Amino acid sequence: MHSFARTHATEVALLAVITVICTVLSFATSNFFSLGNAFDLLNTSSVNIIFAVGLLVVLIAGGIDISFAVAASVVQYGTAIALGWIGGGGWISGLVIAGSIGICLGAINALLIHRFRVISIVATISTFNIYFGLLMFFTKGVSIYDLPEWLTDRVVLFEHEMADGSWIEITLPVLVMVLCVIATWVLITRTTTGRQLYAFGDNPEGARRFGINIGAMQFIAFGWLGLMAGIGGLVQAHYAQEVVPNALYGRELDVLAAVVLGGARLGGGKGSVLGCVLGVLLVAITQNGLNLMGVSPFAFKMIVGAIILVAITLSNTSIERLFPFASQKGARR
Amino acid sequence: MHQLANTGGSEKPLLSLHDINMTFGGVKALKNVSFDVRPGEVHCLAGENGCGKSTLIKIITGVYRPADGASIEYDGETYSHMSPVTAQDRGIQVIWQDLALFPEMSVAENIAFQTVLGRWPKLVDYGRMRKIATDALKRLGITLDVDLPLKDYAIAQRQIVAIARALVGQAKLVFMDEPTASLTQSETDHLLDIVRGLSAAGVAVVFVSHRLAEVLEISSRITVLRDGALVGVYPAAGMTQSRITELMTGKTFDQQVRARPRGDQPVVLDVKGLSRPGQFDDISLTVRRGETLGITGLLGAGRTELAQTLFGMLKPAAGTITLEGRPVHFSSNRDAIKAGVAYLSEDRLSLGLIQPQSIADNLVISSLGKIMSGAFLSDERKRRLVAGWIADLGVKIGRQGDPISTLSGGNQQRVAIAKWLATDPKLLILDSPTVGVDVGARAGIFDIVSKLAETGLAIILISDEVPEVYFNADRVLHMAQGRIVGEYDPRVVPLAEIEGAVYA
């Protein structure tokens, strides 16, 4: 057997970077290093993590999707309207409706890619524009504020007052996020379907020779991202307590960067749920820390961009030089 | 002309094909081919590239569907065509030439990949996977860390993984398409032992290899195809390499030592004390104008690393390289190309040629400067340059604009050579130029090499097949563990002596 560090070099590098940043921030700010802030981070990152694990599945299967964040906005409107028809609904019916619409939108991407042989980046840039255009056209940019009460009420699953008087709490988005993370982890590492997705992303021709159903792989990957986009969309509406048509516009690139940061490869066959979650957290922690340090929000994007570059460079190229224990590869020529 | 071998002919075949026809875009790839395999035999399928071997294998394994009227009898049942699922379920396994492995996945998962197949999701049992993989490797007598991703292993070990994977299915019939192409001699010997073991255990093996010595050593019968038609089925006993070559190509070849004395020519390349720790050590050699220097040795002897250092892709830790009397220090292979060094890489398929691009674009990629007209590339100059080389090297092509992937291995290799010749090199390094090239085309490539030497080009010919360098080089250097351990003159030393030293 060998160490975790060898087979999970990216995750280890990310953990190291996160540790360094957390240490720096703990000394640089008075209130970064607190449980309250840690739980805050989890609460605010939940939606991005839900999106990220969905996108991870598509990347593993060798695709890419630009449309999921806008699709999540479409889901928010669709779900709000559908909930109006059925007279309110609840969390269960809400999630089922949002998930179903999400899956349908994902399936459109899969159809374009598999049936009409459009490469995934082109297909999803197109659907990104179509979804967003339709959304703005039909909503005329108007937000929805009169959402059902169950959706806008904060659901606190656990709260606890700390000795210093601050509160730590776990809210519903965290629970949903944890369930999505576990489900994705089970799908891609514990089920045969998940391994077929990896194999398909790694070597499509090899997978085809084994008789793996290529079309099914595309529909499962994009369907799963659609499901996560749907769930993430509903959770975001709950978190924001409103539905704004362009609220998620631009989120796709943040999530994509975080997932790639987490070790997923554009081109397929590689990526892990842990890395993906760490990738999102690294970006979130950095933003949170900068905020607490009083750095201008205008500088955030620049600094986050730089951190992503540094982290990707570290995790992709010189990990073996940085950590000699990780370099004892198998039989090299 | 169908001559049937009479070796225990009463035994009922495991697989029997009749009237197999296959057409691709108007070209008949297979014409009325029959083929049979007996249980537990090692059967060689021989023929030049493009003769229909791969097509036949793909029909048997269900990848292609033959034209109507075909019959495939396998293990008591008759099919008009196979499907990949049926073929696998019924114990037909293939080790593809490109291996069809998954580099990012673990060795265990690659070997036990069939456990994750199936339409409906099941839970993955990694423990069982690991056990299956370890057992399969144990049958091959090989130890690999099954938890490491496959990409951490070199080609030779990946080949072993592909073989182990085929063994995992309850195989009754295993096709091996060029299984030894990237194995060293001892690995090949080991593989042939494994094939014998399979055969003894009742598994029939159909072996496709360009290395005819292996074919003769391992198989009991040989089916020869030429241009999509069956030439005949022959018992291996009493067969010779030259006879198989004749049957495959319809031509006769005789190999003669081509070495000539070149001692009076000026030195083109002079290397002294060249070292790269862990790869090669204290290499000194010279190549003269018009001389072909052969370098042989086992895989991993440091040959390719040496070649890449001469080509500026790797930097030497110590030593000097002198080209036509001037010391050179290449900081990249661009410098080397400018100084007149050309390097035909070992891995033509992935490094040397850009498969989806056209023949013409591949040929001119290293010499774009010559086809410039002002600030732009000139299509007319390109066409003329390409036409010249195509004619000079006798490359068989359809149109210049066809993708390079449409050419056979031998013709691809000619284009790769032409690409480098177009840069006007003084020194041409050929690293394993016949990998994936069939027998008939090999002779053609060495004819070209010989002609190039006549024009004064200095050539380094690297190969792990000793006969190749023996017959085609003026001098032969033997490399082992990064050092030059012997120098031979083919005109005085017999082939067996060099082979003895290299394969010892």
Secondary-structure map with pairings?
The complex is a heterodimer of chains A (333) and B (504).
Chain A: H1 4-7, H2 9-28, H3 35-60, H4 68-85, H5 91-114, H6 120-139, H7 149-152, E1 156-161, E2 167-171, H8 172-190, H9 192-202, H10 204-209, H11 214-240, H12 251-261, H13 273-292, H14 300-316, H15 319-322
Chain B: E1 15-24, E2 27-37, E3 42-46, H1 53-60, E4 71-74, E5 77-79, H2 84-89, E6 92-95, H3 107-111, H4 126-140, H5 155-168, E7 173-177, H6 185-200, E8 204-208, H7 212-218, E9 221-226, E10 229-235, H8 241-249, E11 267-276, E12 280-288, E13 292-296, H9 303-310, E14 318-323, E15 326-328, H10 333-339, E16 341-344, H11 348-352, H12 359-364, E17 372-373, E18 376-377, H13 379-393, H14 409-421, E19 427-431, H15 439-454, E20 458-462, H16 466-472, E21 475-480, E22 483-488, H17 495-503
Parallel strand pairs in B: 3-8, 3-9, 6-7, 7-8, 13-20, 13-21, 16-19, 19-20
Antiparallel strand pairs in B: 1-2, 1-4, 4-5, 9-10, 11-12, 11-14, 14-15, 17-18, 21-22
Describe this structure in words.
- The complex is a heterodimer of chains A (333) and B (504).
- Chain A has helices at residues 4-7, 9-28, 35-60, 68-85, 91-114, 120-139, 149-152, 172-190, 192-202, 204-209, 214-240, 251-261, 273-292, 300-316, 319-322, and strands spanning 156-161, 167-171.
- By secondary structure, chain A is mainly α.
- Chain A has a domain at 46-273.
- A two-stranded antiparallel ribbon of chain A has the order 1-2.
- In chain A, a hairpin with a 5-residue loop joins β1 (156-161) and β2.
- In chain A, α2 (9-28) runs antiparallel to α14 and α4 (68-85) packs across α5.
- The longest helix of chain A has 27 residues, at 214-240.
- Chain B is an alpha/beta fold and 504 residues long.
- The longest helix of chain B is centred in the middle third of the chain and has 16 residues, at 185-200.
- Residues 1-10 of chain B have low confidence and may be disordered.
- Chain B is 33% helix and 24% strand.
- In chain B, a hairpin with a 2-residue loop joins β1 (15-24) and β2 (27-37).
- Chain B has 17 helices and 22 strands.
- In chain B, the strands form five sheets. In chain B, strands 6-7-8-3-9-10 form a six-stranded mixed sheet, sandwiched between helices.
- Chain B has helices spanning 53-60, 84-89, 107-111, 126-140, 155-168, 185-200, 212-218, 241-249, 303-310, 333-339, 348-352, 359-364, 379-393, 409-421, 439-454, 466-472, 495-503, and strands at residues 15-24, 27-37, 42-46, 71-74, 77-79, 92-95, 173-177, 204-208, 221-226, 229-235, 267-276, 280-288, 292-296, 318-323, 326-328, 341-344, 372-373, 376-377, 427-431, 458-462, 475-480, 483-488.
- The A-B interface holds A 1-2, 6-7, 189-196, 198-199, 202-203, 205-207, 209-213, 216, 265, 269-270, 329-333 and B 63, 83-85, 88, 94, 96, 98-105, 109, 113-119, 121-124, 144-145, 147-149, 152-154, 157, 300.
